[in-house]
Amino acid sequence: MEWNPESVEAKIGIHFKTSETLRLALIHRSYAEQIGEPETNNERLEFLGNAVLNLAIADYLYQHCPYLEVGNFSALRDKLTEGERLTKVWSQLGLGEAYPFLGMGQERHRLRLQSHNPFEEGFKALAGAIHVDRGFSQTRNWLTKNLIAPVLERHLKSITERASPNKQLQFLGDSLLKAIVVDYLYCYLPNVRVGRLGELYKELISKERQEEYIRQVSSEDLMALNLENEKVFAKSIKVLLAGIYLNYTTTEDRGGFKKTGNWFVEKFVDNDEVLRKAIQLLLEDGKSQKWIVRYVMGYESKDYHEGRDKFNEVMEGKKV
């Protein structure tokens, strides 16, 4: 199928630095199987985009709807992420007739009626692709323009008092933690399928891990982060992340997501531990050491011996 990135970019209003990322977002698994490249599909980008979408909505609600209770936040988020709504926006962008690329025999008009369809998946994958290529700030703005504001903007009120400040921070921080972890796994573990990423994700955001994270935060950390109410931020990793994110995004530098994510990963995540667990899962899936070294760890063929040494080093660090 002929690939014309300029046509898609014109429809969505985003120019991609790397057009291959955009193309990947538009490849449904049925088409990937048809062309004999079953792993070259948009499922990883959909996984990432789903987390980014939820964070963009949480950010908008926190910033523009302080007067609402958290229960209303959740209801509005669910409304905005309904499959039917995402499918409608995909069509409004002019993408439904040709995209995503589907395998032969897939009838678009019938697929559109399904509750979970390739167009909904494509929308999330596109959000993930924009995030990868342009960053979270532009992705949030794009989602606000095309999805969030058209639904919520006309209903906004001028009330600035917060209904439940700490619960709202918790809501924002929950989406933020999930997006940070998904973004980290997507970037750190290329070519690892969504199912395995999901297992690692669940472990990294588990209740036990969250309790462990907050125990590692010292009063010196809080002072260095320049957060006003240390007692509030010391109680929950979600609230703390929300505070860090808001602290960054209120300055002229809009790189709040990236900076917050970098802080979290550097503070709490052991890269070798994550890689070791990923390798164990991939070996269970029948992937060879050579494939892992090349396609997950990123060593070119000429550097294979160096990669193999790193592979062994990581695996030998396993606690018995």
Could you please describe the fold and organization of this structure?
The protein starts with a helix and ends with a helix. It has 320 residues and is mostly helical. It has 19 helices and no strands. 37% of the residues are buried. The protein has a domain at 1-163: Ribonuclease III domain (Ribonuclease iii, N-terminal Endonuclease Domain, Chain A, Orthogonal Bundle). It is 68% helix and 0% strand. Helix 4 packs across helix 8 (118-134), helix 4 crosses helix 9 (136-152) and helix 15 (237-249) runs antiparallel to helix 16.
- The succession of helices and strands, N to C, reads HHHHHHHHHHHHHHHHHHH
Give Rg in angstroms. 21 Å
- The fraction of residues assigned to DSSP E strands is under 5%
Q: Which sheet architecture does the biggest sheet show?
A: none
List segments where confidence is low: pLDDT < 50 over at least 5 consecutive residues.
Answer: none
Could you estimate the helical fraction of the residues in percent? 55-70%
CATH architecture of the domain at 1-163: Orthogonal Bundle
Global outline: flat
CATH topology of the domain at 1-163: Ribonuclease iii, N-terminal Endonuclease Domain, Chain A
CATH homologous group name of the domain at 1-163: Ribonuclease III domain
- Class computed from helices, strands and strand pairing: mainly alpha
Distance between the termini: 51 Å
Number of helical runs?
19
CATH class of the domain at 1-163: Mainly Alpha
Mean pLDDT: 92
Q: Quick one: how many beta strands?
A: 0
